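Folded chain entry
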Amino acid sequence: MISRKFLLVSILSLLTMSTNALAHDFWIEPEDGAFLLRYGHRGHEALPLEVSKLQTLLCRKDSGAAQNLVKSAVAAPRQISLQASCMLLSAFFDGGYWSLTPDGEKNLPKNKVPDAVKSWRSKQFAKWVDSHSPLASQPLGDAFEIVPVTDLAKAKTGSRATFRVLFAGKPLSGATLAIDHKPLAETDDRGEARISIRGHGRESVSVSYRRMVKTAEADSEVLEASLTFEVAP
């Protein structure tokens, strides 16, 4: 029989794996004249998405300020849709507190789970940009976001592009950029990393970062963000 101690050690070892390897994607993409927010693994059937956890849906149509259109979002079991004209659109999905126990994960803070082994706060951000818009390289102001440095209108499959990761508006070093859950590069002191575009027609780049917080509710905060855009033929 497997001892409880061995089980706890095994659980802890899983936590050392890449966040990208364990997490699901959260992304935005245009489809049939609307924007769709989806959760799961791109290229596969989307997973259920709790609209109550969607906190903001920022749309920037021009050089003016972004508008929060979260109240205009339409929920369905496996996606959230928005009818709007946006050059940049971002979403913040607050996953709340999670605790890992010998019996599995619970969507509760550590101080409400007596047998918690580890706990974390999950925050996911998704952004879509119009590659041809002059606004594409400008931050939207999300707490965690990917901003293209390279002119995405010129990005093609196989070409390399530079992206900057911002946390609280400042460049973040040591964050891992990935495509399809495959880690490709870590950001440097300027918060930048250069990677190859792999997608045909559309690409989605993701970034993950775990920072220690050590509060009564959680040991760490897990931040994830995605950036989706069209790729030139």
Summary: The chain has one domain: 4-24+87-230.
